[in-house]
Amino acid sequence: MSLEASIALERGTLRLDASFSVAPGELLALIGPNGAGKSTILRALAGLLPLDAGRIVLDGEVLDDPVAGILRPAADRPVGVVFQDYLLFPHLSVLENVAFGRRARGEDRHTARAAATAWLERVGLAEYARVRPGALSGGQAQRVALARALASDPRLLLLDEPLAALDAGTRAEVRRDLRTHLASFPGIRVLVTHDPLDAYALADRVAVVEGGQIVQAGTLPEVTAHPRSRYVAELLGINLLEGTVRHGIFRLPDGGELVVTGDAADGPAFAAVRPHAISLHTTEPGGSPRNVWRGVILDLDRLGDRVRVRVGGPVPLTAEVTAGAFAELGLEPGREVWTAVKATEIETYPA
Question: Whole-model pTM above 0.70?
Answer without folding.
Answer: yes
